[in-house]
Amino acid sequence: MKMGNAKIKQHYETAKKTGIMNLSQRKMLELPANLQMLVPVLRTLDLSQNMFKVIPDEIGIYTVMKQLNLSQNKLRTLPDAIGLLVKLEILNASCNLINSLPDSLSNLSNLKQVNLSQNHITEFPLVFSGLKHLDMLDVSKNKLTVVPDGVAGLHVTELNLNQNQVAVLSEKIAECPRLKILRLAENCLQLNAIPPRILKDSKISNIALEGNLFENKQIAHLEGYDQYMERFTAVKKKMF
């Protein structure tokens, strides 16, 4: 990207003042060299709807960044250096080809929202366990089959697992300290795969189970359903 283009030059000058850079829909394959002039100020970077197959480790130099949008590219993974973005609060890498995640994501202790929807992830992303500020994790439309015991370490209030292939659900999901909304619609769960503990002894007050291997009305026969409905109703009352 050449600075000779007056419009693009203006774009960078504005970004120096606002800390916001939108490079969406530019048919980009790599980061523009000029982006480095924004290292001290860049708080929001939008690289969505481009043609990135790889995000270079150079991304790690933007250490004041709070929002990063990598959605709708052709990424198969995220770079290790993403773990250097310690101020990052919002990460959107939805609609890619991601099948693995770097362990360095566990360094991002300020994360609040992560969207990994519509990728090729096959293993539950336990890398987000222990992140105390993470409110929402969206891993819908992936290829998950198991929600493992390690899920207990998630601090999210909302977990979206819709449209996966989940057939095994650990009862330890009941131990998630803040989980209120659990979305499990359109998976491969049998009725007996729903641990009673989730209904009976958790903070979950809204669970979506439509489109699994049972009729939704059968949930009412599960042990703990009454306790779950008490929580559900209490939340509804607060809303009105």
Automatic annotation (TrEMBL):
InterPro entries documented for this protein: Leu-rich_rpt, Leu-rich_rpt_typical-subtyp, LRR_dom_sf, LRR_domain-containing
Alphabetical list of SMART domains matching this protein: LRR_BAC, LRR_TYP
Gene Ontology CC, one term: cytoplasm
Keywords: Leucine-rich repeat, Repeat
Pfam families (UniProt xref): LRR_1, LRR_8
Name of the protein in its database record: Leucine-rich repeat-containing protein 57
UniProt source species: Fopius arisanus
Protein encoded by which gene: LOC105264810
